[in-house]
Amino acid sequence: MKLELPEKKKWVYTLTLPIRWGDMDAMGHVNNTLYFRYMETIRIDWFKAINALPNPQGQGPVIVNAFCNFYRQFEYPGDVLVRMYVSDPGRSSFESWTTMARASEPEVICAAGGATTVWTDFPAQKSAPLPDWLRQHLE
C-alpha cells in the first residue's frame, strides 16, 4: 500500500526502533497502541534534535489530533523503520506524517499516520505563532 502524502511534504527525520517481545498482543502481532508510541517517539526525537521540546513556563508543541492507518502487521523479532515528514505550516500549527515499515523491507509501508501540532503559549493556555526558527524547519 502506498501512502499519499501532501505534495509539499518535507522529510525531516528517520528512526529505527526495535520490536520488543512485550509489544505483541494475544493475536501474536504488535498491538495497535504501539504504532502511536512509534509516532510519538520519532516526533519527540525530532523535537529534541531541533531544540523544540516544550517549556511549561514558556512555549512548545502540543498534539491536537493523531491518526493511524494499519496496512500490514508487525511481529517480533524485527525493527520498525519510522520516517517523519512535515507539511502545511500555518500561523500556529503544522501537520506531521509518519510511515512505518519493516527495516528489512523499507519500501513496504505497514502503517502510516500523522498528527496536527499546535505551537502553544503554556502560561496563556492558547496557541502562539510558530517561531521563525521552527518555520525554517517546516518549509
Plain-language structure description:
By secondary structure, this protein is of the alpha+beta class. The chain has one domain (10-138): Roll (Thiol Ester Dehydrase, Chain A), CATH 3.10.129. The chain has two helices and six strands. Strands 1, 2, 3, 4, 5 and 6 form a six-stranded antiparallel beta sheet that branches. The longest helix has 18 residues, at 32-49.
Please describe the topology of this protein.
Layout lengths: L9 E9 L13 H18 L9 E12 L8 E9 L5 E10 L6 E13 L4 E2 L4 H7 L1
Antiparallel strand pairs: 1-3, 2-5, 3-4, 4-5, 5-6
Low-confidence stretches: none
Largest sheet: 6 strands, antiparallel
Distance from N terminus to C terminus (CA atoms, Å) equals 27 Å
Number of distinct helices: 2
Query: How would you sum up the global shape?
Result: elongated
Task: Provide a quick synopsis of the model.
This protein is an alpha+beta fold.
Pick out its properties:
single chain, 139 residues, alpha+beta, Thiol Ester Dehydrase, Chain A, 6-stranded antiparallel beta sheet, 2 helices, 6 strands, 18% helix
